[in-house]
Amino acid sequence: GADLLFHEALDFEWVEERLGTSPTSAALAVRDHHYSAHTSPRDAMRIAEEAGARQLALHHLVPRTTSLDVWRRGAESYSGTLYVPDDLDVISLR
Predict the structure, then answer these.
(1) Which whole-number Å values give the CA distances from 45 to 1, 6, 26, 41, 65, in the listed order?
(2) Contact 41/9 with Cβ under 8 angstroms?
(3) pLDDT tens-digit profile of 63-77?
(4) What is the structure's pLDDT at 94?
C-alpha cells in the first residue's frame, strides 16, 4: 500500500551481451552476481504490484545507456504509474 516504491533494475540482455559468452571465471562470477543480486524491470513491476505500490520509480539502472523502451517493457502488467526518472526529477506523492 505504499505511495511510491523506488526499485533498482538491471538490463539482463546487456549482461548476456557483455558477459554471457566469456568463459573466464571472473566474468562468470560477475554474471552470476548480477543474476542473484539484481532485478529486471519486469520483476520490479511484479514486486510493486504485489506490494500494492501505487507508483514505481526505477532507479540505479544498469546500464544507464539502455533505451527507455527496455525499462518500460512489460509496464502493462503493472496497474500503477511507472516512472523512469532522470537525476533531479521530482515525483509527487498522490
Answers:
(1) 14, 11, 30, 6, 20
(2) yes
(3) 989 999 999 999 999
(4) 66
CB neighbours of 93 closer than 8 A, spacing ≥ 6?
Answer: 3, 4, 55
- Looking up cell 501505487 gives 54
**92 pLDDT tier (thresholds 50, 70, 90):** confident
DSSP state of 77: G
The helix or strand, by DSSP H or E, that contains position 57, with its residue range, turns out to be strand 55-62
Buried b (16+ CB within 10 A) or exposed e, 15-51: beeebeeeeeeeeeeebeebeeebbbbeebbeebeee
**Are 80 and 53 a contacting pair, CB within 8 Å?**
yes
Q: What is the average pLDDT across 14-27?
A: 87
C-alpha cell at 26: 571472473
pTM equals: 0.88
